[in-house]
Amino acid sequence: MPIKAMGWAHSFPASGGVRAGRRWTRRQLESLSWTAAEPETVDAVVLAVSELLTNAHVHAHSDAHLILTWDGDCLHVSVHDDDPTLPRQRNPQAGETSGRGVGIVRMLADELQMTCQRHGKTVSACFRPVGTDRPSGG
After folding, report:
1. Which of 5, 23, 27, 80 could disulfide-pair with 71, CB 3.0 to 4.6 Å?
2. What Cα–Cα distance (Å) separates residue 108 from each residue in 48, 53, 55, 92, 125?
3. Which Gene Ontology terms cover its molecular function (predicted)?
4. Does the pLDDT of residue 121 top 90, yes or no?
């Protein structure tokens, strides 16, 4: 059986790109058949995109390059920025306005992966919708 995937890519500038990234992501997801029946998964993806773009802008001081890929099993959300330093999960104190992004994405996603590259890093999260057709074992 041939592998069929769909994908979209867009760059968001460090100045004001987070809101645009959320809107762009929601628009792309509308073309996938499962999203109408799974608004919670769509909201989780949009929130993860928001956190990952914010991290790229605030901590890496970089434009963020967002790639969404649907492979029939997992919606891959990947954000690349120019800083090779991997994000670390922190335990912020009550009242701190920063430090929760990695933890939020880790909680929302089915998988989270961080990769250093020669020119920056990529943080990728996988979201598996509940209602997608899965091959039956047996």
Report:
1. 5
2. 7, 15, 16, 18, 9
3. protein serine/threonine kinase activity
4. yes
% of the chain with per-residue pLDDT over 90: 67
> 70 forms bridges with which residues in the sheet?
6, 75
Q: Phi/psi at 102 (nearest 5 deg)?
A: -65, -40
68-79: average pLDDT: 96
Domain ranges of the chain: 17-88+99-127
Residues 6 or more apart whose Cβ sits within 8 Å of residue 93: none
DSSP codes, 85-121? PPP----PPTT-SSS-HHHHHHHHSSEEEEEEETTEE
Stretch 32-40: mean pLDDT: 95
Count of residues in the chain:
138
CA–CA distance, 39 with 26 (Å, rounded to integer) = 10
Strand partners, 121: 81, 116
Quick one: average pLDDT of 21-31?
96
Q: Is CATH 3.30.43.10 the right assignment for the domain spanning 17-88+99-127?
A: no
Residue from 98, 74, 76 nearest 87 by CA: 98
